């Protein structure tokens, strides 16, 4: 199985939000990510900037 890492892009740097992500839900004002080992985490105000399937990484951003 191939799990995904979710990172927040901030000021040209990546902050790791969660590893081994198995599910990502898009809500009206937040994203909810679920991990195999870490449970569920809600990230208010975040949106998906890009998904790199080869690297197994989802890049998030928050509005400025």
Describe the 3D structure.
The chain has 64 residues and is mostly beta strands. The chain contains no helices and six strands. It has strands spanning 4-10, 13-26, 30-35, 39-44, 47-52, 57-61. The protein has a six-stranded mixed sheet with strand order 4-3-2-1-6-5, with no helix packed on it. A hairpin with a 3-residue loop joins strand 2 (13-26) and strand 3. The relative contact order is 0.29. The mean pLDDT is 93.
For the largest beta-sheet, the strand count, sense and barrel status come to: 6 strands, mixed
How many helices does DSSP assign? Answer: 0
**Residue share in helices?**
under 10%
* Rg (C-alpha, Å): 11 Å
- The helix-strand sequence is EEEEEE
Structural class: mainly beta
Secondary structure tally: strands: 6
How would you name the oligomeric state of the polypeptide chains in this document?
A: single chain
Point out poorly predicted stretches: none
Strand order of the largest sheet: 4-3-2-1-6-5
Morphology:
globular
End-to-end separation: 35 Å
Provide the β-strand percentage band.
over 45%
